[in-house]
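FW: tagging you since you asked about this chain on Friday. Here's the raw sequence from the shared folder, copied in full. Didn't touch anything.
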Amino acid sequence: MISYLPLAHSFEQLLFVASLSYGSQIGYFGGDVLKLTDDCQVLKPTLFPSVPRIYNRIYDKIQARLKELTGMRNYVATKAITSKLFYLENYATYNYGFYDRIVCNKFKAILGGNVRIMATGSAPISVEVLNFLKVCFCCPIIEGYGQTESTAASCATLPHDSVAGHVGGPIPCCKIRLRDIPEMGYTAQDTPYPRGEVCFKGPSVF
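HL: got it, structure written out here
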């Protein structure tokens, strides 16, 4: 795992403890977030955690590269992204041998080439950006939701979930309850989506 998020943030603390618990190596960035991709070339992380702000920068960087392509190279790159998005959204697959070799491996090299799983949290992220990065880096991006008081994560998506734009179900150690708030007109019977106060319970909550 590459470590560069603020250690005061519960997300980074959770990742740090989880890495130690699973016996994973932790590589530390050089101190300048603007040179994060340079650090990735050296560390070659397999786990890349981040926040939407940085993912958006990576997205913009890749989009800028694509716009520079012309002719057949542009056609092949566009075809690769379009095809992989189709298979991601319909079959939850991240790999496509031919397109990965000639197009996506160049994108994967931005983060060192070895990333197998990515994670995002702390703020919402665009579905378009999320799906685009999944097909570019050929791996799932786990989106989580939680608070400092729930040890960073209360919900998380699953790697094989083909639908983006949500934060998944509760993690195994956390129970979630939707409590009615009649004075605000929020009830679990609201349509099309139930509304109320989201309450968490479990050993991860303090």
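FW: The first strand starts at residue 2 and ends at 3.
HL: agreed, and The mean pLDDT is 92.
FW: great, closing this out.
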